[in-house]
From TrEMBL:
It is found in: Endoplasmic reticulum; Golgi apparatus; Lysosome; Secreted. Residues 245-433 form the Peptidase M28 domain. Pfam families: Peptidase_M28. GO terms for molecular function: carboxypeptidase activity; metal ion binding; metallodipeptidase activity. Residues 1-16 form the signal peptide. Keywords: Carboxypeptidase, Endoplasmic reticulum, Glycoprotein, Golgi apparatus, Hydrolase, Lysosome, Metal-binding, Metalloprotease, Protease, Secreted, Signal, Zinc, Zymogen. This is Carboxypeptidase Q. Homodimer. The monomeric form is inactive while the homodimer is active.
Amino acid sequence: MRCVKLLFLCATLAAAADNDAPRRLAARALGETPLWTDLRALCDGIGGRPTGSPAAQRSVEWAVKTFRAAGLTSVTVEPFKIPQLWLPGTAEASALSPVQFPIRLAAAPFTASTHGALEANLVDVGEGSEQDFARAGARARGAIVLVRSKEMKSFDDLFAEYLRNDALISSARKAGAAALLLQSTRPRGLLYRHPMGLDGALVPLPAAVVSREHAERLSRLAEAGDVRLRLNLQNQTGGEYESQNVVAEIRGREKPEEIVLIGAHLDSWDLGTGAEDNGVNVAMILDVARGFQELGIVPRRTIRFALFTGEEQGMWGSRRYVERHRAELDNFVATVTFDTGSGRLSGFYLNGREDLRAPVNAALAPLSGFTASDHLIDALDGTDNFDFLLSGVPNLVGVQDPIPYLPDYHAESDTFDRVNQREQKITTAIASALVWSLAESPQRLRRQSRQEVEKLLIDTKLDQQMKAFGQWSDFTAGQRGLFQ
């Protein structure tokens, strides 16, 4: 049925009046565009793009070139600093006794290297709670510790995996463990990058994600007797380094100082090619910009297209962007962020702002044939809306079906073939109409004060998550959440 609607609306929207910009933009987005050519160039041609890597730099150069080829004349590269470099290198492991076999694993971002190849006994500490380590006792000292995980089935499971990091690392270090092996939460041998910190700071303990099936085998062997492993993790680490955001804009015809920003993160992890996270939305941002240029549509306000890097290291690109543009934050009418793949777009996270529901629905009204009005009031941490939220800027994040996205999150399987092309075309149409309407509306959305933001964080309980992630102190100290 949705496919039939797509074909019908493509035909009817194409026939709309020339002055009907949202429908013209949507009709163009639903037709043949370079969206998939761009995504193949990014994901197949460049591949995985960890911030600080040569591939990440190539993706920045590619994005600049692609924006300019789309006809945008205002395209800039904005450099910024990230405190600490981490890139994956060698990751090898094998069982030595009582049986020999290679172990599939992937280094966990922001963790230390082993000192050469480490040989040690394996100790299974269950789910890695403080009580689990207490039961292991002295056996954990100098050992390679195996931590068990439940299979991930939801965003709640994913966040639980992140939320246990600090306590797990603390218990492992207190016990004197030599390294951590984390059981993959994905079945069928799938590996992924699981950051052990959320700000890019180095964790002084080697750690890796081991395939779910190998972890099960190791656990059974450990239950039967002593198990000895060899582990070699050699990561590239360093101090402060430079990355870059790519920013393009279409200057508004009446209120060019007022800005609607649509953004996605350009960087990715490296095991796959970063298609769902987040190349597909990078390609979409480029195609939205291209649509305005091709149709010669100039909105009342400026539309800014931002491709951030450093997102996977702790949202450094968008954080530094907010710092850099602090003086003009009062002029930001809204930001719209996309970061959950190509699943069906059902609405937008309002990030604690119930006052945004009516204007967003009004902005989407010209495309009522597509249902994208199931908005969620939840306030989000973990993507590039966050520092705009903390600074009071009205911010939206696409609500997309997580079922096809979650298994591929940071994983080997995050490749071009996993993208839902039909749904992403519809999302591109909706995004085009939304940013036009926000930029064209006679009324603008209101920026909140710092006091209002703090109340929002408490009311939505986002403050609890920020405390768990070590972000709350930066907010209370005024280092995040920037106001004049």
